[in-house]
Amino acid sequence: MLYDPKWELPIETKPLEPWQGVLRSAAELIRRRGHCQNRYEASDGSLCVIGAVSTAATGAALPPLFGAPDDVYNKAISAIVEHMSMWSIPEWNDRPGRTPNEVATMLDEVASH
């Protein structure tokens, strides 16, 4: 069997920014609780994109009305808008046929950048 000592060297990883952690947590919430449309949180506990990001950032599905422009929720939402080049997160979320997997994958993808 082939062996290379470099295989045992630790891989350097860049720590996540807080907003990236929020997006990863939001993706996990969608995977666990499900995805809903046309509301932040459905009666079964499923969440829309904004509801999941808000829950991950603040503990509540209803997004904060006011906050510093540099707070973690706003940074996470801004990253989604910038990365996806979307004008409206709700419009993207509520497109008929949108799946929980698509939502969670998008959140993970944005968190990775």
Show the helix and strand layout:
Elements: H1 18-33, H2 49-58, H3 72-84, H4 89-93, H5 100-111
Helix pairs in contact: 1-2, 1-3, 1-5, 2-3, 3-5
Keywords:
mainly alpha; single chain; globular; 5 helices; 113 residues
Low-pLDDT residue intervals, each spanning 5 or more residues: none
Structural class: mainly alpha
**Major sheet description:** none
**How many domains in all?**
1
CA radius of gyration: 16 Å
What is the typical, i.e. mean, pLDDT?
A: 90
The percent of residues in helical segments reads 40-55%
- The helix-strand sequence is HHHHH
Coarse morphology: globular
Strand content: under 5%
- Helices, by number, come to 5
| Count of distinct strands | 0
What is the CA-CA span between the terminal residues? 37 Å
Quick recap:
It is built from 5 helices and no strands. By secondary structure, it is mostly helical. The protein has one domain.
Structural summary, described in words:
By secondary structure, this protein is an all-alpha fold. It has one domain (17-111). It has helices at 18-33, 49-58, 72-84, 89-93, 100-111. α1 packs across α2 (49-58), α2 runs antiparallel to α3 (72-84) and α3 crosses α5. The model has no long low-confidence stretch (mean pLDDT 90).
